[in-house]
Amino acid sequence: MIKRYSKSMKKRDILVIAPQPFFIERGTPIAIDLLVRNLDNFGYSIDILAMPIGVSPNYDGINIHRSLNYLKAKELKPGFTLKKIILEVGVIIKFITLMSKCNYRVVHAVEESIFWALLFRPVYKYLLVYDMDSSLVEQMINRFSWLKSIESHLESIENYVCRNSDAVIAVCNSLADKAAKGGSKNIHLLTDVANLQEQTNIECKEDLNEISQNNKIALYVGNLETYQGVTLLYEAARLLQQDKVEICIIIIGGSESDVQYYQNKVNGDGLNNLKFLGSRPVGMLEHYLMQADILLSPRIEGSNTPMKVFNYMASAKPIIATNLNTHSQILNNERALLVPPTSVCFVNGIKKIIENDDYAQRLGSAAKEYVFREHGIDQFRRRLQIAYDTLK
């Protein structure tokens, strides 16, 4: 267990590196917010190093340090982009500045920041925690297919950082397995949580039944990146309209440009059963989930389980998800309807659920019971405390 410093500015317990916009309402920033609030509750002194994009939460005693915004950027899409690489250079410069002023016992490096955090460890002599929210090799190859030819070399680098970190905190079983294969001897599984009750409740009166024109509602919540499988839902909506199925697919989330693109496409194709509402505050999530008849997770790429799935399960609404490892490491056929990643299979799944109320209720009830038993906030806090207790 690390020895706690007093909450002075010269000596701090933990520096959390967030190499993405913080805070915005997206998966990894939400996870980082949950992390630092709980570490702070344990009595550690916490600083966050973040990119110059996002809103600073109103923390008591947690300091947020931001790099310079060389590009005057206002937003940053998920994944690897040239803009992100340039902004991360600024994060590294800010890191060196912080390290010259303050002695941190632990650096908690999220995602790709682990590579350069490991590089600087011999200089500043801190304990290093790798927060493994995704497989960086998988992300890069999905983004740049030409990297497939050097996949084994990239995996060797990923294995090296796993093996040389003092602890690896993996967000799902498949990443924990990857860390183990990489040679890490101190791995902790820290999944996302069902935390609808923990989120700030924002009053919302938006009625999805009005939007769906009183048809059944199949709801997707999340960004509109390719790996999420939104094109699969688009084609499913076309088939459902063709079959005259009385259901409306409603999509919440996505950047303004992505929403506009899909809305123009919907208008051009004459789809009346597919609605893109754009982003909504996380504090309204429960309001929307409880109005849905079916919840959808069509992800087609990635190892980590989508954060949305945990709150989907907490709502006790039936879930349809692709039968890939990204889902099956948490969901099974007793807790969700898992289908192959095709639009036809999603259409058949939607029809099956809306035609069988008892089946839908069984799925929802089993999912809710499981998620609160295995992935509630108390389990998260216990696992996080155990992980930090191993650092010496």
Account of the protein in words:
The protein is of the alpha/beta class and 392 residues long. It has two domains: 11-193 and 376-389, Rossmann fold, CATH 3.40.50.2000; 198-374, Rossmann fold (3-Layer(aba) Sandwich). Helices cover 43% and strands 17% of the residues. The chain contains 15 helices and 13 strands. The chain has a seven-stranded parallel β-sheet with strand order 3-2-1-4-5-6-7, with helices on both faces. The chain has a six-stranded parallel β-sheet with strand order 10-9-8-11-12-13, with helices on both faces. Strand 9 (247-252), helix 9 and strand 10 form a beta-alpha-beta unit. The longest helix has 20 residues, at 82-101. The protein is globular and about 65 Å long. The N and C termini lie close together (5 Å). The model has no long low-confidence stretch (mean pLDDT 93).
Tell me briefly what this model is.
The chain has 392 residues and is of the alpha/beta class.
Q: How far apart lie the N and C ends?
A: 5 Å
Low-confidence stretches: none
The description of the largest β-sheet is: 7 strands, parallel
How many domain modules? Answer: 2
Features:
43% helix; 2 domains; Rossmann fold; alpha/beta; seven-stranded parallel sheet; 15 helices
Task: List strands and helices in order, with pairings.
Layout: E1 11-18, H1 27-41, E2 46-50, E3 63-66, H2 82-101, E4 103-110, H3 113-124, E5 127-132, H4 136-143, H5 151-164, E6 167-170, H6 173-181, E7 187-189, H7 208-211, E8 216-221, H8 230-242, E9 247-252, H9 256-269, E10 274-278, H10 285-289, E11 294-297, H11 308-314, E12 319-322, H12 325-328, E13 337-339, H13 343-354, H14 357-374, H15 377-389
Parallel strand pairs: 1-2, 1-4, 2-3, 4-5, 5-6, 6-7, 8-9, 8-11, 9-10, 11-12, 12-13
Helix pairs in contact: 8-13
